[in-house]
Design brief:
Length: 296
């Protein structure tokens, strides 16, 4: 008899399980199949696996799991597959994998995850996918990346992240996507960046960021974009922006210089946009500005 499925809850709360070698015939692992197998250290999918899907929280709270290789045959991933596997140090997507999305909270609170390589086929990184990975210091995108969307909180609270290079194909970055990355210094965009939209507080509370140059393609920015970025010193507005959002530089106490392009079409300055920017002693707004919000 050939086993093709691990049913939902099959080993739910099985605290004595230390390792598992799955038959290569397995095609799916159901929801919470290995949920809180707190002593599980190793998972082996075999040399020639047939695995296609991993269910909701399939390995969530497997506290002793140290490494995982997701087979190239996998095409479907549900939410929170490895949620709070806090000793997980190595997660590898096998070469040739064709997934298009890294789903909601997939590696959320994997506190010891050190590095990750995002497959080229991924177009969406879901909310909280890599949030709370306190030791994550290296995020790399495979050559030919097709990434388009980085969703809300996707890379937030990663306290060891210093450098990040955004693929040119990304058009949208969601709310708080890179917030609370307290050591993030360099956030770089390519010359051919297609980025148009930044959500609310994308870079909020990044205390080490001194400067950043947004691509000219940006047309929309949410409120509080650099809220509490206390080391930010300089900023140049993209030419196609028409509004300075509310709270954009709130409490950026080291901000000394803000630049506008000669052909700027900015017409409004939002509420509290420059509140508590104590080092900003002089600013010349474009002639196009007609509205200035309260305590701007």
């Amino acid at each position: 008899y050939e086993v093709t499925q691990i049913s939902p809850y099959a080993f739910y709360l099985e605290s004595t399980l230390l390792s598992i070698t799955l038959p290569e015939s397995i095609k799916s692992i159901g929801a919470e199949a290995f949920y809180e197998c707190m002593r599980l250290k190793t998972v082996d999918f075999g040399a020639n696996p047939s695995l296609e899907s991993l269910g909701y929280q399939a390995f969530a709270y497997c506290y002793e799991l140290r490494s995982i290789i997701i087979p190239a045959t996998v095409t479907e991933l549900d939410w929170y597959v490895f949620y709070d596997c806090y000793k997980l140090e190595t997660a590898i997507f096998a070469e040739g994998i064709q997934i298009t999305e890294i789903p909601y909270g997939m590696f959320n609170y994997c506190e010891n995850l050190r590095e990750i390589v995002i497959p080229a086929t991924v177009t969406v990184i879901g909310p909280e996918a890599f949030s709370g990975n306190y030791n994550l210091s290296s995020i790399t995108f495979a050559p030919g990346s097709q990434l388009e969307i980085i969703d809300n909180f996707a890379f937030s609270s990663n306290y060891s992240l210093v450098d990040f290079v955004l693929p040119d194909t990304v058009t949208t970055i969601g709310t708080y996507a890179f917030a609370y990355n307290t050591k993030l210094v360099n956030f770089n965009f390519g010359e051919n960046s297609q980025l148009t939209t930044l959500g609310n507080s994308v870079f909020s509370d990044n205390y080490s960021m001194v400067s950043i140059v947004l691509p000219e393609s940006v047309t929309t920015m949410g409120s509080g974009l650099f809220n509490n970025c206390s080391s930010l010193e300089t900023f140049t507005f993209p030419a196609n922006l028409t509004t300075i959002p509310d709270n954009m530089f709130y409490n950026c106490e080291e901000l000394v210089s803000v630049y506008f392009p000669e052909d700027s079409t900015i017409s409004s300055v939002g509420n509290l946009a420059f509140m508590y920017c104590d080092s900003l002693v002089d600013i010349t707004l474009p002639d196009s500005v007609t509205i200035i919000g309260y305590n701007a």
